[in-house]
Specification:
284 residues; TIM Barrel; alpha/beta; two-stranded antiparallel ribbon; 11 helices
Length: 284
């Protein structure tokens, strides 16, 4: 089997990648532990304090499409579970240097595999959040609830991702009662100009409060969105406005400098919040 570098060189003249090529590339990513991880901050909207980070995968080299397409391809080639576990393992290696909690994405099918349970046992459970992705329909919610019960008994929290993007997210809420609800960008993007979006988010705020769950708004990109979310009572958020996904800075033991604010760990708030600047909390 050629090395990944040789494989990519052979495709440098824009030749299409075959299924065999993609299998070799993904197999190499797994075996060479070459999945790169970046971290996006999750902030308290009232203060700007970082409460945790979401670990996101990145694949270098040739242009194979968006990250999610690589995972889709891996699943179709029978490598999905291994690729997810490889990405999670890389992220967990960085956990000692990450302030706050670390959110790791796993599909329900992968979470049901015993190798996933063994991997997660290595992490301090009180600092770990499992974000359930919606790659495939859940075949057996009963088994999934049992697995989540084991993790929760150890102190791991469970997040339902992409709430508002489709029916699956709503069913996750009903079946699994997640500790954290993550509002999809599709709900956030219209809150400034659309009353329906605001009413939906407001309803989710009330629901999360009644269920004793935390609510995280994903994909915050403008100060106007941030202001409306604050007015509606959303407590936590992430998005390019609050910090881009970045690799771990080994010198500072925290994800690197973001685009918002004057330095690596400073965020400026819009007028609705007296422009507070808040450094990252490294003591968490």
């Amino acid at each position: 089997m050629p090395t990944d570098a040789a494989l990519q060189t052979s495709r440098a003249k824009h030749a299409p990648w075959t299924a065999s090529d993609m299998y070799q590339h993904i197999r190499w990513l797994i075996d060479a532990q070459a999945v790169a991880i970046v971290y996006q901050p999750i902030r308290a909207l009232a203060t700007g304090r970082v409460v945790g980070y979401e670990a996101l995968s990145r694949f270098g080299g040739a242009d194979h499409g968006p990250v999610e397409e690589i995972f889709v391809c891996a699943r179709s080639l029978g490598l999905g579970l291994e690729l997810e576990l490889a990405a999670a393992a890389e992220a967990l290696c960085d956990l000692p240097d990450i302030p706050g909690y670390l959110a790791v994405n796993l599909s329900p099918a992968t979470l049901l595999d015993d190798n996933a349970l063994s991997l997660l046992e290595r992490a301090p459970p009180e600092r770990l959040v499992i974000e359930l992705t919606e790659h495939d329909a859940v075949a057996d919610y009963g088994r999934l609830r049992e697995r989540l019960s084991i993790l929760r008994s150890r102190g791991v929290r469970i997040a339902a991702d992409d709430i508002g993007a489709g029916f699956a997210g709503l069913r996750h809420i009903a079946e699994l009662k997640p500790d954290i609800l993550k509002l999809d960008r599709s709900m956030i993007g219209g809150i400034v100009s659309g009353s329906i979006h605001r009413h939906l988010v407001s309803a989710m705020v009330a629901f999360a409060r009644d269920e004793d769950s935390q609510l995280v708004a994903e994909g915050i990109e403008t100060h106007e969105e941030l202001a409306v979310l604050g007015d509606l009572g959303v407590e936590l958020g992430q998005g390019y406005l609050l910090g881009r996904p970045l690799p771990l800075d080994r010198r500072s033991h925290a994800p690197g400098t973001g685009p918002v604010g004057d330095s690596a760990n400073v965020i400026r708030f819009p007028p609705w919040h007296s422009r507070v600047t808040a450094p990252i909390d490294r003591s968490a």
